[in-house]
Amino acid sequence: MPLAEKSLIRRIRSRAGNTRGIIGIGDDCACVRIPPGHEALITTDFSLEDIHFRRKWQPAASVGHRCLLRGLSDIAAMGGTPLAVFLSLALPAKLPRRWVDEFLGGLLKLASEFAIPLAGGDTSKSPGKILADIVVLGSVPKGKAVLRSGARTGDRIFVTGTLGSASTTLAALLRGNKKKIPASDLNRYFYPSPRVEIGSVLREKGPATSMIDVSDGLSTDLSHICDESKVGAELIAEAIPRRNTDLRLALHGGEDYELLFTAPAKATVPRRIANIPITEIGRIVRSRKISLRIGSKLQKLAPEGWEHFRK
Ligand code: ADP
Ligand code: MG
User: Fold this and answer.
1) Does the beta carbon of 198 sit less than 6 angstroms from any atom of ligand 1?
2) Which of 65, 120, 284, 297 has the fewest CB atoms found within 10 Å of its own CB?
């Protein structure tokens, strides 16, 4: 391997620090112990410059944070606990070292909040843009992962937090209005929190029959639950929790990283978990359609969230 790659890996290794007893960076494979009675959860997400992030207005630390966030949010959506993260990087030769350092800083800060080590990865030069590929390894008690396929007719539908804020902030950023965006909104967009604790409480206490994280937008992610569970859904427009966001963005805007889940009609669902409000927004129906109730009118709700290959 060229010296630059070697020295970059050395740098990453020294910053990754303690791997808490697991065998991590420096060997051919990481060796991670899965807790007894548990099974592994594995998720991969890559973040590509100008598709998933922009270097122009997004701090490098936020890019690192959000790369890992996407994986942690997937682990949360299964009701799991994260164990380790892996990072494969392809970097253009001209990229300033400071960008890489800040990127790593953002990623490692979030990793330390969840006490997971950066346990390995791969490094290469990129002929074009930056690519950061994340693998998160987690665990869940055997047979207990909360799937997309468990929603049943009559279940109630819930969401954590509020929806639409991320796409509202993103739209303002794309218009070049960074200075006009309140700092708290920018912070929420750049450094969202994965709902890991909520996901595992919902799994442990048992009310969640199905779950997904809202990464592509409510309408699209709900359609994934409905497809996998072979059911339909009816949402109530005025119940959807949002702040200073129009209904369209709350329904279709992505990147909020909240959890969407279903629970049986009679189950007790807490109003708040980990200090985040839990809101009931509709119910699961037998007919395989998704509709939206606005006042007394019921209209069809098409999945209009983010999709990569849409023209
Ligand atoms: P190999 O030739 O076996 O792929 P490498 O020389 O690519 O090994 O990597 C050496 C060690 O550094 C391995 O343990 C690998 O997991 C780790 N590593 C390489 N790149 C990264 C990275 N971007 N982040 C974290 N660990 C990395
Ligand atoms: Mg390698």
Assistant:
1) no
2) 297
